[in-house]
Amino acid sequence: MDTALRPLLVVGGAVLLTLLAGWAVDVLLRRADDHHHETPLWGLLRRCRPPLQAVLLVSVLRGTYRETGWRIVQEHAAGIGQTLSLVLIGSGAWLVIGIASAVVEATFARYASATRDPARVRRVRTQVTLITRIVTAVVAVVAVAAALLTFPALSTVGTSMLASAGIIGIVAGVAAQSTLGNLFAGFQIAFGDMVRIGDTVVVDGEWGVVEEVTLTFLTVRTWDERRITMPVSYFTGKPFENWSRGGAQMTGSVILHLDHSAPIDAMRQKTEKILEACPAWDHRDWSLAVTDTTPSTIQVRVVVTAKDADDLWTARCTVREQLVDWLSERHPHALPRITTSQAVPSPREAGTNGRPPTPRPTRAVAPDGDRPARTGRG
Fold first, then answer.
1. Do residues 323 and 271 lie in contact, with contact meaning Cβ atoms separated by under 8 Å?
2. Of 25, 40, 319, 334, which has the highest C-beta tally within 10 A?
């Protein structure tokens, strides 16, 4: 009877103690969350209940498993103890990562709620993301190292490993030069405020928004929902455009190539009407001017402003489309034209007298392909 009750008391007591401790901690965190609504830390810490219960259960079993009295436990006590130690290390690392993530997320949430500057919020968000990844990586490395040290065989090769650590470090440093470069570049991006999550950038001619920043790579989401993954060292070694740097407001231009007879004053009036009816325009500024001339065309530039990159793109497309439609309907002569004339025939084709006929007068035509077509992005 005693042999049957002892394992039940050991295992059942450990489970009961774990459940009671987890329930008590959850009640305390719930009450703290109710009394402090402005601090999300207590609510986030409640997510750490499973790893906490795992740590408590394994800790109790690790100290009392020999008291079960089972013969199989006595025969394999070393193996069972080492297994419980590995589980305890893993659950402890899980608990530490959960607590660190909760603290970091709560800090960021309080900062974001108290700050009205979106640029600062994106900068802190980028830093917080990288800090969380660093803490996770450090805890994982320490946990793996602690787990390896529980094996007795590793202690016998410890001396040789330490003796060869210098050579291994040099070889690993040379082999992982690119990885280490990306690692330090990630720190530079996070704390140097070069690029942040949510920034609008142009990289290698691709326009997109920074979606994810890690210690080794950065992901840019393009306007057509593609994802471009690039090493973070690219942003520290090559120039790129950051449209969100210094503020979200932007100024853009629309370039039109027209005939010399284009009605510039009427175009200014039409552009103003188009912008007044365009919700994407922020009413800060606009202009229309002839910026260049060629023997066959003039270059007209329309400058518009918007509150961010998305609205700027919409405003530019709206101005371009409606101006081209208005010119084609009201002033078709203002569209680019190509001047052509009839080819002069050879003397054999002209007749027996050898004199070519008088060429026809020059006329101006507008090819079908000269009229710009409506397009979307790109």
1. yes
2. 319
Alpha helices in 150-221 (DSSP H): 152-156, 158-163, 165-175, 177-192
Amino acid code (one letter) for 317: C
CA atoms within 13 A on the CB side of 349: 5
With b meaning 16 or more CB within 10 Å and e meaning fewer, what string describes 92-123?
Answer: bbbbbbbbbbbebbbebbeebeeeeeebebbb
For the chain, what's the residue count?
Answer: 378
Q: Give the model's pLDDT for residue 174.
A: 46
Which of 124, 117, 130, 55 has its CA nearest to residue 85?
55
CA distance 197 to 219: 9
Q: What is the pLDDT of residues 19-39, one digit of tens each?
A: 887 788 878 877 777 776 667
Q: Kindly write down the DSSP assignment for every residue of 212-224, as one continuous string.
A: EE-SSEEEEEETT
Radius of gyration (C-alpha) of the chain in whole angstroms = 36
* CA distance readout (Å), 89 to 58, 60, 240: 10, 14, 44
C-alpha closest to that of 232 among 265, 200, 189:
189
Token duo for residue 149: 């040290």
